[in-house]
Amino acid sequence: MLEKEFSSSLGCDVRLTGDYRMSLFPRIAIEGSGIELEAPQVVRLLARGEHYSAAIKLLPFLHREVQIASVALRGGFLDLGALMVANKGPAPSAPQEISVPQVRSLTIEEFALVFGDESNVVALNKVQLDELELGREARLELDGSWLGEGIEMARVALRGGLQLGQALESATLKVRDLKLEFGDSGVSGLSGTWVWDQSLATISGETDWAQDSKSVHSHIEFRLGELITGGLQASYRQSPDAVPVVAEARFIFREYQLEFPEIGLAWAGQDIAGAGCYWLTQPAGLHLSLLAKVLDLDKISTFFPAGNARESDLPFNLSAELQVESANYSGAKARKVSVKIGSGRACSDITGPGP
Predict the structure, then answer these.
(1) Is the peptide bond preceding residue 315 cis, with omega within 30 degrees of 0?
(2) What DSSP letter does each residue of 299-349 carry, written as one string?
(3) What does the alpha-carbon distance between residue 66 and residue 28 come to, in Å, rounded to a whole number?
(4) Alpha-carbon span 352 to 355, nearest angstrom
């Protein structure tokens, strides 16, 4: 009976594989171990929960009103690859609103988001959502990490709000404080707004970061398909009055790297183009191959105050090659200049997450 009700509500097959118990006072509650979700068109499990519990307020329920006091899930996984397969098919002509009761408290702990072969996993240590209701913003706290082949690649802590569309056709994430850590390095104080649109199969958003007098503003869009592709625009200022460094790039997400087939930089009045990749390994790294027709090194040097620009200050390894047709420096001119920075690996060398 319970499995049938859960299956009808969630739109997939639900199996309760372990023991569970129910109570009716002072709240209608269920607690158990072992729950699995399947879809007919997918050969592997969509999700599994190790321990779960839920509580519904009794008095409103007696008046035919469902108010969920709490939902908790600990242990298990959600297979995002299987979920995308399950959702394939013709989209409805218009999103249909669904009726989901408000959830006062949703807690998820020790849960994993996997991508098919489990080589890339987002480990959710804890997710807390309060006052969750379709069409309204819920308070969100998240603490987790990203693992590649079992190696921790990055850690994330997020505080903000999440709003789901009335038909679950969209989601808006408002980030008020985001902290990212890569090994011993990291960045905090990130904020912005991100939107997922099911009909367009896109995730897009803007992020801001400021520290001391420096600031970065970026806009990124991900397009979800056989490959995750997209584009980004970013601007960096050393001070509020400084001329920004502006970057644009197109990217393709592959197993262990972000590939940039096109990069454009407007840097101190100079135009630089090229390609590169950011490898998602431990340690992480950035490789760039750039070309400029004319470059004024005197202007560019103002971005690197003496003693403050060290590769060790970066949260990743840097490897760059710059080819310049004509360069100006301290009144002297040179042609066919080649500059190399760092000793990191080339994009074609990336085959796994380890060093």
Answers:
(1) no
(2) HHHTTS-TTT--GGGSSSEEEEEEEEEEEEETTEEEEEEEEEE-----GGG
(3) 10
(4) 8
Does 95 sit behind a cis peptide bond, omega within 30 degrees of 0 on the bond before it? no
pTM: 0.78
With H, G, I as helix, E, B as strand and everything else as coil, classify residue 314. Answer: coil
DSSP structural state of residue 243: P
The conformation of residue 96, written as its DSSP 8-state character, comes to P
- Angle 65-69-70 from CA coordinates, rounded to 5°: 135
* 312, 345 Cβ separation under 8 angstroms: no
Separation between Cα atoms, residue 157 and residue 125, nearest integer Å: 10
Q: Which of 97-106, 166-175, 234-243 is predicted least confidently?
A: 97-106
Higher pLDDT, 159 or 278: 159
Best CA proximity match to 235, nearest among 202, 209, 197, 273: 209
Q: Which residues pair with 35 in a beta bridge?
A: 16, 49
Taking only the tens place, the pLDDT of each residue in 283-310 is 678 888 999 988 887 777 666 544 444 4
The helix or strand, by DSSP H or E, that contains position 86, with its residue range, turns out to be: helix 80-86
pLDDT, one tens digit per residue, over 36-48 is 988 777 667 888 9
Residues comprising the chain, all counted:
355
Distance CA 328, CA 333 (A): 5
Residue 150: per-residue pLDDT:
77
Q: How many CB atoms lie within 10 A of CB 145?
A: 16
Dist CA 157 CA 62 (whole Å): 40
**CB neighbours (10 Å) of residue 35?**
22
CA nearest neighbour of 300 among 277, 271, 276, 273: 271
- Amino acid 216: pLDDT: 92
